[in-house]
Write a structure and sequence with these properties.
- By secondary structure, this protein is an alpha+beta fold.
- The chain folds into three domains: about 5-140, Beta Polymerase, domain 2, CATH 3.30.460; about 140-200, no CATH class; about 220-400, no CATH class.
- It has 15 helices and 16 strands.
- The strands form three sheets. It has a seven-stranded mixed β-sheet with strand order 3-4-5-2-1-6-7.
- It is elongated, with a radius of gyration of 26 Å.
- The N and C termini lie far apart (about 75 Å).
Length: about 400
């Protein structure tokens, strides 16, 4: 079809949608707004725009303020973040892109996007579409192509977000080659977290796939606690918080919990497996963060002992250490068995999976690792049941304690 005719048909379709929702576009024309991203892709594919955000971009902050004032007086306010401000108009969800770094021309804002299928835009002042010559072919091929490889913040952070968006686009029939996925994973490892960088890429051995969890914070962690405390099997075990979120929460990208035997309780491996699966699913699927779970029959933490290989070797306890993976862990070098999804290894408390030399001992002794004492999860739950204050400083003041070694 002729591009001019196609664009005309798409404009009529877009304007018809606005009219049916009593949305006035004159304010957008007056303030030189342009609509960009997934909404244009969906429009061209014939997918209802009522299922997606409509992202409005601005050439200047003064135009944003004019449109925001109008929307505030005429439409229903929905949500606000450092990046966007969202309103509802009929069935439409209107999202104003507000962060100063994302204010600018089409050429500027598209220079910071990940996939070529997001390069389509509609400019209200000229009532015209803007998109690359290959744009329609990219949509038709259903193959995701990376727009840029070297991107500075804030969009440089979004390689992890891009991996998540692949999952979203797959639901629309798009596919990503292995090269595209590997490029995204590689670039995501190079970025630091800040107000833009709130998602990372982690390999889940339980699901045997890369996931894109958010960086954990005190709110999502406590929300998870308030949910998991009701699990019917939790009463049969002791559970401890340990690792990075307790020791260095500003650096870590996941939360680690240790499950142990509870005196006077009898539990099966099947119950342990279900608890570990449910813990992970609740953390990732509901609260968005990545949870690492392990089982050790009797808790023994390296941070409670002097930084000496000789002392550590003399006190290290041989016992059952259990991890959970979708496929058998072939990296275990000590005596072990597989039960369902559980890898049950007979190993030292500091020599996990039997691998020598121990990376845990190396970090503690040679690298002067900073490890806080593990904390009973029930103590944390009890504290937040009776305390509405949630900030990481208060959390660390209450629960972060070191052995002094």
């Amino acid at each position: 079809m002729d591009r001019k005719l196609f664009d005309s048909q798409m404009k009529d379709k877009l304007y018809s949608l606005f009219e049916s929702n009593n949305f006035n576009i004159d304010i957008l024309k007056l303030n030189k707004v342009y609509l960009r991203g997934g909404a244009i892709m969906r429009l061209f594919m014939g997918i209802p725009l009522t299922d997606a955000d409509l992202d409005f971009y601005f050439l200047d902050l003064k135009y944003f303020k004019e449109v925001d004032d109008y929307f505030n007086n005429h439409y229903e306010f929905s949500d606000e973040t450092p990046l966007t401000k969202t309103y509802k108009c009929g069935e439409l969800e209107l999202q104003l892109i507000r962060h100063p770094y994302l204010i600018g021309t089409y050429e500027y804002t598209t220079s910071m996007t990940d996939f070529t299928i997001t390069l389509g835009s509609f400019h209200f002042e000229t009532e015209s579409f803007v998109y690359p010559d290959t744009y329609l072919d990219d949509i038709k091929s259903k193959e995701l192509r990376i727009h840029r490889l070297e991107i500075e913040p804030p969009e440089g952070r979004s390689w992890a977000n891009a991996l998540q968006r692949i999952e979203k686009y797959e639901k629309l029939g798009f596919t990503a080659s292995d090269d595209v996925v590997e490029t995204i994973k590689k670039n995501s490892e190079l970025k630091e977290n800040d107000e833009f960088h709130q998602r990372t890429v982690k390999m889940s051995w339980l699901r045997n796939k890369y996931l894109t969890p958010i960086v954990p914070n005190i709110d999502v962690f406590v929300n998870w606690l308030m949910d998991i405390k009701h699990h019917q099997t939790l009463k049969k075990f002791n559970v401890y918080l340990w690792g990075g979120f307790l020791s260095r929460p500003y650096e870590t990208k996941d939360v680690d919990v240790l499950i142990t035997k509870r005196d006077g309780q009898y539990a099966t491996l099947k119950e342990l497996e279900k608890l570990m699966i449910d813990m992970f699913n609740l953390a990732y699927d509901i609260h968005g963060f990545f949870l690492d779970t392990h089982y050790m029959r009797i808790p023994q933490w390296i941070g409670d002992y002097p930084r000496s290989r000789e002392i550590l070797k003399s006190v290290e306890r041989k016992q059952i250490f259990i991890t959970i993976t979708k496929n058998e862990d072939k990296g275990i070098v000590c005596k072990h068995r597989r039960y369902g999804l559980l890898n049950c290894a007979y190993t030292g408390s500091f020599t996990l999976r039997g691998v020598e030399p121990s990376s845990l001992v190396h970090r503690w002794v040679d690298l002067n690792g900073n490890y806080a004492k593990m904390v009973d999860l029930r103590k944390i739950i009890k504290y937040y049941e009776n305390n509405i204050e949630r900030n990481i400083e208060d959390f660390l003041n209450k629960f972060q304690e070191y052995s002094g070694y």
